[in-house]
From TrEMBL:
Protein name per the record: 33 kDa chaperonin
Residue pairs linked by disulfide bridges in the UniProt entry: C238-C240, C271-C274
Family: Belongs to the HSP33 family.
Source species of the chain: Clostridium acetireducens DSM 10703
InterPro entries per the UniProt record, alphabetical: Heat_shock_Hsp33, Heat_shock_Hsp33_C, Heat_shock_Hsp33_N
Role this protein plays: Redox regulated molecular chaperone. Protects both thermally unfolding and oxidatively damaged proteins from irreversible aggregation. Plays an important role in the bacterial defense system toward oxidative stress.
GO biological process, one term: protein refolding
Cellular component aspect of the GO annotation: cytoplasm
Swiss-Prot/TrEMBL keywords: Chaperone, Cytoplasm, Disulfide bond, Redox-active center, Zinc
PANTHER family reported in the protein's UniProt record: 33 KDA CHAPERONIN (PTHR30111)
CDD domains registered for this protein in UniProt: Hsp33
Coiled coil: none
Domain of life: Bacteria
HAMAP family named among the record's database cross-references: HslO
Gene name linked to the record: hslO
Length: 293
């Protein structure tokens, strides 16, 4: 089944909903990074959360980066997403893995760690990007994003993210949603949504049974006038290029680059997000140096 990203409203716009199935794109991300099971679940939840947040951006040139920097063995997890449904991600320690937690689930909070921050960086073409930061809440990622929305954006939100990892470390099912109550919405309505979410089986179980995101949302918002506004197919896609790598080389500074040049060796740089390799010969490094002079 293809991945699907859906924007919807319910109760005449009092409830805003963004949901997605992401089994294929998460599978691509975790296979690029050769993740162990727990790392795969963590990166998969971040990719899905990032995708949903990226699709909330208004202009096509905007982008959002979400990053977890904490004291767990996963270390740094970064995801960048774009409004067109493209997303890419990176986990510093793809081998991070722990025994199942007391609920029998992959211990994402365990590898994320307790002390650290969730950063949300929105680049909207202005001089300075918007940076929001909250301390790690539970480390389960969905809870942390919900906490961010509530504290940093003053928008009470429910965030559900799930990744089911198969025994061969491929992704069996993955998906998630962000549900936000708009200002002025009935508080009883928020209670009802909360109750429905508690009743719901885990989202990955439903996806694994073959339900698509629209069917899952219909299950939650039955009798609440659910309206699907648009749907699209999200993708794991990296937009790196030789030009961008050259810019990165220039940004390390003339002195450092001169050292690389003096080493008289070929320089190979690898993209963090897709593992693509970019080679630069001694002469090419020389001409980049010339350009900065
Ligand atoms: Zn790349």
């Amino acid at each position: 089944m293809e991945d699907k990203l859906v924007h919807a409203i319910a109760k005449n716009g009092d409830i805003r909903i963004i949901g997605a199935t992401t089994t294929n794109l998460v599978n691509k991300g975790v296979s690029i990074h050769k993740c162990a099971a727990t790392a795969a679940a963590a990166l998969g939840r971040m990719l899905t959360g990032g995708l949903l947040m990226g699709s909330m951006l208004k202009s096509e040139n905007d982008k959002v980066t979400i990053q977890i920097l904490a004291d767990g063995i996963a270390r740094d997890i970064v995801v960048t997403a774009y409004p067109d449904g493209h997303v890419k991600g990176y986990i510093a320690n793809p081998l991070a893995d722990l025994p199942l937690n007391s609920k029998g689930k992959l211990d994402v909070a365990g590898i994320v760690g307790k002390n650290g921050n969730l950063l949300v960086i929105k680049d909207m073409g202005l001089k300075e990007p918007y940076v929001g930061q909250v301390p790690i809440y539970t480390g389960e990622i969905g809870d942390d994003l919900a906490y961010y929305f509530t504290v940093s954006e003053q928008t009470p939100s429910a965030v559900g993210l799930g990744v089911l990892v198969d025994t061969d470390l491929s992704i069996k099912a993955s998906g998630g949603f962000i549900i936000q109550m708009m200002p002025g919405a009935d508080e009883l309505l928020a209670d009802l949504v909360t109750y429905r979410l508690q009743e719901l089986n885990s989202i990955t179980e439903l996806i694994n049974k073959g339900m698509d995101i629209k069917e899952i949302l219909e299950l939650i918002f039955k009798d609440m006038d659910l309206k699907i506004l648009n749907e699209s197919m999200p993708l794991y896609k990296c937009n790196c290029s030789r030009e961008k790598v050259i810019k990165a080389l220039i940004s390390i500074g003339k002195e450092e680059l001169q050292k690389i040049y003096n080493d008289n060796k070929e320089e190979e740089l690898q993209c963090h997000f897709c593992n693509k390799k970019y080679k630069f010969t001694h002469d090419e490094i020389g001409s980049i140096l010339e350009d900065i002079k």
